[in-house]
Protein backbone atom coordinates (compact mmCIF):
# COMPACT_ATOMS: atom_id res chain seq x y z
CA UNK A 1 0.00 0.00 0.00
CA UNK A 2 1.38 3.39 -0.96
CA UNK A 3 1.31 6.21 1.57
CA UNK A 4 1.27 8.97 -1.06
CA UNK A 5 -1.60 11.21 -0.02
CA UNK A 6 -2.25 9.15 3.10
CA UNK A 7 -0.78 9.19 6.54
CA UNK A 8 0.07 6.00 8.37
CA UNK A 9 -3.53 5.73 9.60
CA UNK A 10 -4.97 5.71 6.07
CA UNK A 11 -6.38 9.24 6.19
CA UNK A 12 -5.46 12.17 3.96
CA UNK A 13 -2.06 13.37 5.19
CA UNK A 14 -1.28 16.97 5.95
CA UNK A 15 1.06 18.40 3.31
CA UNK A 16 1.15 15.19 1.27
CA UNK A 17 1.90 15.24 -2.43
CA UNK A 18 -1.48 15.12 -4.18
CA UNK A 19 -0.17 13.74 -7.48
CA UNK A 20 3.28 12.20 -7.17
CA UNK A 21 3.28 11.33 -10.88
CA UNK A 22 3.29 15.05 -11.65
CA UNK A 23 6.72 15.45 -10.03
CA UNK A 24 8.93 14.44 -12.91
CA UNK A 25 11.93 16.51 -11.91
CA UNK A 26 12.70 14.88 -8.55
CA UNK A 27 11.95 18.12 -6.74
CA UNK A 28 10.06 16.41 -3.98
CA UNK A 29 6.70 17.59 -5.22
CA UNK A 30 6.92 20.96 -3.57
CA UNK A 31 4.67 23.44 -5.28
CA UNK A 32 5.16 26.31 -2.89
CA UNK A 33 1.66 25.90 -1.41
CA UNK A 34 2.84 24.50 1.91
CA UNK A 35 4.47 26.86 4.36
CA UNK A 36 6.56 25.48 7.22
CA UNK A 37 5.77 26.80 10.70
CA UNK A 38 9.48 27.35 11.36
CA UNK A 39 10.92 29.60 8.67
CA UNK A 40 14.53 30.71 8.52
CA UNK A 41 16.77 32.01 5.79
CA UNK A 42 19.43 29.79 4.27
CA UNK A 43 22.04 31.94 6.04
CA UNK A 44 20.34 31.35 9.41
CA UNK A 45 20.26 27.57 8.87
CA UNK A 46 23.94 27.57 7.87
CA UNK A 47 24.82 29.54 11.01
CA UNK A 48 22.83 27.30 13.38
CA UNK A 49 23.67 23.88 11.95
CA UNK A 50 27.00 22.09 11.56
CA UNK A 51 28.06 21.48 7.95
CA UNK A 52 26.93 17.83 8.15
CA UNK A 53 23.59 18.76 9.76
CA UNK A 54 23.04 21.37 7.05
CA UNK A 55 23.92 18.90 4.27
CA UNK A 56 21.42 16.32 5.52
CA UNK A 57 18.64 18.47 6.98
CA UNK A 58 18.53 21.31 4.46
CA UNK A 59 19.99 19.69 1.32
CA UNK A 60 18.39 16.23 1.70
CA UNK A 61 21.71 14.46 2.09
CA UNK A 62 22.22 11.05 3.68
CA UNK A 63 24.76 10.02 6.29
CA UNK A 64 26.72 6.84 5.70
CA UNK A 65 25.12 3.70 7.19
CA UNK A 66 26.34 2.45 10.58
CA UNK A 67 28.05 5.77 11.33
CA UNK A 68 25.26 7.81 12.94
CA UNK A 69 24.84 8.37 16.64
CA UNK A 70 21.48 6.55 17.01
CA UNK A 71 21.46 3.62 14.57
CA UNK A 72 21.91 1.09 17.40
CA UNK A 73 20.76 3.15 20.40
CA UNK A 74 18.20 1.57 22.74
CA UNK A 75 17.85 4.49 25.19
CA UNK A 76 14.26 5.27 26.21
CA UNK A 77 13.18 8.74 25.18
CA UNK A 78 11.90 11.08 22.51
CA UNK A 79 13.64 11.91 19.24
CA UNK A 80 13.39 15.57 18.23
CA UNK A 81 14.17 17.29 14.95
CA UNK A 82 17.74 18.51 15.32
CA UNK A 83 16.92 21.68 13.36
CA UNK A 84 13.84 22.92 15.24
CA UNK A 85 13.29 20.70 18.30
CA UNK A 86 9.89 19.30 17.25
CA UNK A 87 9.22 15.88 18.80
CA UNK A 88 9.05 13.38 15.93
CA UNK A 89 9.55 9.79 17.14
CA UNK A 90 9.86 7.86 20.41
CA UNK A 91 11.96 4.91 21.45
CA UNK A 92 8.72 2.91 21.78
CA UNK A 93 8.43 2.81 17.98
CA UNK A 94 12.13 2.31 17.31
CA UNK A 95 13.23 -1.14 16.15
CA UNK A 96 16.35 -2.90 14.92
CA UNK A 97 16.12 -3.15 11.14
CA UNK A 98 19.87 -3.77 10.68
CA UNK A 99 19.96 -1.22 7.84
CA UNK A 100 22.53 1.12 9.43
CA UNK A 101 20.16 3.98 10.26
CA UNK A 102 17.67 4.48 13.10
CA UNK A 103 14.38 2.82 12.16
CA UNK A 104 10.90 3.53 13.50
CA UNK A 105 7.58 1.93 12.59
CA UNK A 106 5.58 5.16 13.08
CA UNK A 107 6.07 8.85 13.91
CA UNK A 108 5.11 10.20 17.33
CA UNK A 109 1.82 11.69 16.11
CA UNK A 110 -0.09 12.55 12.98
CA UNK A 111 1.20 15.73 11.37
CA UNK A 112 4.67 15.66 12.95
CA UNK A 113 6.15 14.55 9.64
CA UNK A 114 5.21 15.12 6.02
CA UNK A 115 5.73 12.93 2.99
CA UNK A 116 7.24 13.91 -0.35
CA UNK A 117 7.56 11.81 -3.49
CA UNK A 118 11.32 11.46 -4.09
CA UNK A 119 12.65 10.41 -7.49
CA UNK A 120 16.26 11.38 -6.92
CA UNK A 121 19.19 9.00 -7.40
CA UNK A 122 17.21 6.89 -9.89
CA UNK A 123 14.85 5.61 -7.20
CA UNK A 124 11.14 5.99 -6.47
CA UNK A 125 10.84 6.62 -2.73
CA UNK A 126 8.87 8.52 -0.10
CA UNK A 127 10.90 11.21 1.64
CA UNK A 128 10.08 12.07 5.26
CA UNK A 129 10.43 15.69 6.38
CA UNK A 130 9.83 17.50 9.64
CA UNK A 131 6.29 18.87 9.62
CA UNK A 132 7.38 22.03 11.44
CA UNK A 133 10.56 23.19 9.66
CA UNK A 134 10.52 21.08 6.48
CA UNK A 135 13.95 19.57 7.19
CA UNK A 136 14.87 16.29 5.51
CA UNK A 137 14.80 13.37 7.93
CA UNK A 138 15.06 10.28 5.74
CA UNK A 139 12.64 7.96 3.92
CA UNK A 140 9.77 5.60 4.74
CA UNK A 141 9.38 2.18 3.17
CA UNK A 142 6.28 -0.07 3.11
CA UNK A 143 5.87 -3.82 3.09
CA UNK A 144 9.37 -5.01 3.89
CA UNK A 145 8.12 -7.71 6.26
CA UNK A 146 9.63 -6.52 9.54
CA UNK A 147 6.55 -7.59 11.50
CA UNK A 148 5.97 -4.17 13.03
CA UNK A 149 2.41 -2.93 13.67
CA UNK A 150 2.43 -0.73 10.53
CA UNK A 151 4.76 -2.81 8.31
CA UNK A 152 6.57 0.46 7.63
CA UNK A 153 10.20 1.43 8.22
CA UNK A 154 10.99 5.08 8.77
CA UNK A 155 14.69 5.05 7.91
CA UNK A 156 15.92 8.29 9.50
CA UNK A 157 19.37 9.91 9.54
CA UNK A 158 20.82 10.15 13.06
CA UNK A 159 22.13 13.64 12.29
CA UNK A 160 18.51 14.73 11.71
CA UNK A 161 17.57 13.76 15.26
CA UNK A 162 18.35 14.63 18.85
CA UNK A 163 17.47 12.08 21.53
CA UNK A 164 16.02 13.44 24.75
CA UNK A 165 16.31 10.54 27.21
CA UNK A 166 13.34 9.66 29.40
CA UNK A 167 13.81 10.53 33.08
CA UNK A 168 16.57 8.31 34.45
CA UNK A 169 17.56 6.90 31.06
CA UNK A 170 21.21 7.08 30.05
CA UNK A 171 21.96 8.51 26.59
CA UNK A 172 24.74 7.29 24.30
CA UNK A 173 26.94 10.17 25.48
CA UNK A 174 26.55 9.06 29.12
CA UNK A 175 24.19 11.87 30.17
CA UNK A 176 20.93 11.26 31.97
CA UNK A 177 17.66 13.11 31.91
CA UNK A 178 15.98 14.09 35.02
Determine the number of helices (DSSP H or I, runs of at least 4 residues). Answer: 2
Strand order of the largest sheet: 3-4-8-7-6-5
Rg is 16 Å
Low-confidence stretches: 1-33
Distance between the termini: 41 Å
What profile does the largest beta sheet have? 6 strands, antiparallel
The percent range for strand residues is 15-25%
Which keywords apply here?
single chain, 178 residues, 3-stranded antiparallel sheet, 2 helices, disordered N terminus
Structure description:
- Strands 3-4-8-7-6-5 form a 6-stranded antiparallel β-sheet, with no helix packed on it. A 3-stranded antiparallel β-sheet has the order 2-1-9, with no helix packed on it.
- The protein has 2 helices and 9 strands.
- With 178 residues, the protein is mainly beta.
- The longest helix has 7 residues, at 42-48.
- Strand 5 (113-118) and strand 6 (125-130) form a beta hairpin.
- It has helices at residues 42-48, 51-57, and strands spanning 77-81, 87-90, 94-95, 103-104, 113-118, 125-130, 136-142, 152-156, 161-165.
- Helix content is 8%, strand content 24%.
SSE map:
Elements: H1 42-48, H2 51-57, E1 77-81, E2 87-90, E3 94-95, E4 103-104, E5 113-118, E6 125-130, E7 136-142, E8 152-156, E9 161-165
Antiparallel strand pairs: 1-2, 1-9, 3-4, 4-8, 5-6, 6-7, 7-8
Summarize the structure.
This protein has two helices and nine strands, in the order ααβββββββββ.
